[in-house]
Write a structure and sequence with these properties.
The protein is an all-alpha fold. It folds into two domains: 89 residues, no CATH class; 159 residues, no CATH class. It is 67% helix and 0% strand. The chain is built from 16 helices and no strands. Helix 7 runs antiparallel to helix 11 and helix 14 packs across helix 16. The longest helix has 20 residues. The radius of gyration is 17 Å and the shape is globular.
Length: 255
């Protein structure tokens, strides 16, 4: 099961669009339909709408316009958009997209660990083995845990109904021909939301940190149900309160 490739596509889905916006090289199609880079990076947007505005907005082409904009990257953006749904999407900043995909999570988790250890005033422990510092076999294990966290976070406001699950599965089917991965995603989308079950995927403290960062990126912390889910997930992941605060700070800093 190649979870790593799919997750990397999802996390990098707005990268090229953001770069195009920044360089002024966007096409007319991208200009009219927008992209995930606009929403995550806040580039060129005067309003504070979420991804739901892009997918459903009458003047912006909706999901069809997005998917026609940039090949596979747009397909990934469509899948990520459906995961975010109509909630007020967090605007994860351009730095995350610039780092690129899975490496971004590793960089943020590594920095959070460093700051947390420094604040404790204790001697540095072993260097954190975050996803950007691991051999391929371990990267795949981390990737599956992170993708599980993303899917769970998408369900944390209760918006994913049967119709939306079918739409999300349809977008993932376009992204990967891996039958095992498709069946795994189907099971994750359809199981009841359980922070304790999600947290059991974290085999190492670094995996726990990465899963939490991915969850913070996806949810709207001003939404009561989503904030409650994050707090319970952190408890089940056994995150030290100081580390939890540092992980959230790292996401805020790149907005």
């Amino acid at each position: 099961m190649n979870t790593r490739g799919l997750l990397d596509q999802l996390l990098k889905s707005g990268q090229q669009m953001l770069q195009d916006k920044t360089s002024g090289s966007r096409t007319a199609g991208k200009s009219s339909s927008g992209g995930l880079g606009d929403l995550l990076g806040g580039v060129g947007k005067s309003s504070s709408g979420g991804l739901g505005d892009l997918l459903g907005g009458a003047g912006k082409g909706g999901l069809g316009g997005l998917l026609s904009g940039a090949g596979g990257g747009a397909l990934a953006a469509g899948a990520m958009g459906l995961l975010m749904g109509n909630k007020g999407a967090r605007k994860v900043g351009g730095k995350v997209l610039t780092y690129g995909g899975l490496a971004a999570l590793g960089v943020l988790a590594y920095k959070a660990y460093g700051n947390w250890q420094a604040s404790q005033g204790s001697a540095p422990q072993n260097e954190p083995q975050t996803i950007d510092r691991l051999p391929p076999a371990q990267v795949e294990e981390h990737s599956q845990a992170i993708l599980r966290a993303l899917v769970a976070a998408a369900k944390s406001d209760g918006h994913v109904d049967d119709r939306e699950r079918a739409l999300i599965e349809g977008e993932f089917t376009k992204l990967t021909n891996d039958q095992e991965l498709q069946h795994w995603l189907h099971a994750e989308l359809n199981k009841p939301l359980d922070p304790a079950e999600v947290a059991r995927a974290a085999a190492t403290p670094e995996m726990a940190a990465e899963m939490y960062i991915a969850s913070v990126m996806l949810v709207d912390q001003e939404h009561f149900m989503e904030r409650a889910y994050l707090d319970e997930l952190a408890r089940q992941l056994k995150l030290d309160p100081g580390l939890k605060a540092e992980l959230e700070a790292q996401v805020r800093e790149v907005q």
